[in-house]
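Researcher: Let's do a round of design. I'm pasting the structure tokens now; please hold your answer until I've finished.
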């Protein structure tokens, strides 16, 4: 695709950037950053810059983003799917199944070990539940995985508000409270949904189903642990 094609009305570049920055495979990484930002002591550290926190961040990013992206890239190169964009629901079956199995394996190992706090394991279970249901729905119709991820992120921010309402995230000289985090995640969820509509990737119903699935899945997982 030529570079100028990205600037056409059908694929506006701001929508592409938003979709990339909030790709659903980045959800576990963002969840980790939120949790360690609000309460780093859960991970046995005092701040994100500590070696232990950075080690966990790199591990989660590699396991939940880099490896799945490489796997999908290989599938595209082998012509198992037409492109990494996976615009047709039939193309999503294989990659969704692969990511679902990989994420369950990651969750199982995190849950079996003692390196990750229970709350993070609950959030990962929520991601796995959302993936399983999304896989089933995808057999019938497309569902917005971006919206599913953002719905989950909104739910996570609300759960963190209830658990650590008195804590704040330190961003240099700025302190961001959990209430503001909830507002920001809701706004970001709306921005991502708008971007997916602008790209023509989904209709409104597919977005609403995705938001609802991601949101509910986190509370179902939380109920399992608490």
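Researcher: That's everything. Go ahead.
Model: Designed sequence:
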């Amino acid at each position: 695709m030529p570079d100028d094609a990205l600037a056409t009305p059908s694929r506006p570049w701001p929508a592409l950037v938003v979709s990339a920055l909030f790709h659903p495979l980045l959800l576990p990484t963002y969840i980790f950053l939120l949790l360690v930002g609000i309460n780093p002591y859960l991970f046995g550290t005092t701040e994100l810059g500590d070696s232990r926190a950075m080690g966990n961040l790199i591990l989660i990013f590699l396991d939940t983003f880099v490896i799945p992206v490489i796997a999908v890239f290989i599938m595209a190169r082998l012509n198992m799917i037409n492109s990494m964009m996976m615009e047709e629901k039939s193309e999503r079956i294989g990659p969704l199944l692969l990511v679902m199995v990989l994420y369950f394996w990651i969750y199982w190992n995190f849950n079996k070990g003692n390196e990750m706090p229970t709350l993070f394991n609950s959030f990962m279970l929520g991601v796995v539940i959302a993936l399983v249901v999304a896989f089933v729905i995808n057999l019938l119709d497309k569902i917005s995985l971006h919206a599913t991820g953002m719905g989950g992120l909104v739910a996570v921010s609300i759960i963190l508000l209830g658990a650590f309402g008195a804590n704040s995230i330190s961003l240099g000289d700025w302190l961001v409270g959990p209430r503001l985090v909830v507002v920001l995640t809701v706004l970001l969820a709306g921005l991502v949904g708008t971007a997916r509509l602008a790209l023509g990737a989904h209709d409104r119903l597919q977005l609403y189903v995705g938001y609802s699935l991601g949101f509910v899945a986190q509370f179902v997982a939380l109920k399992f642990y608490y």
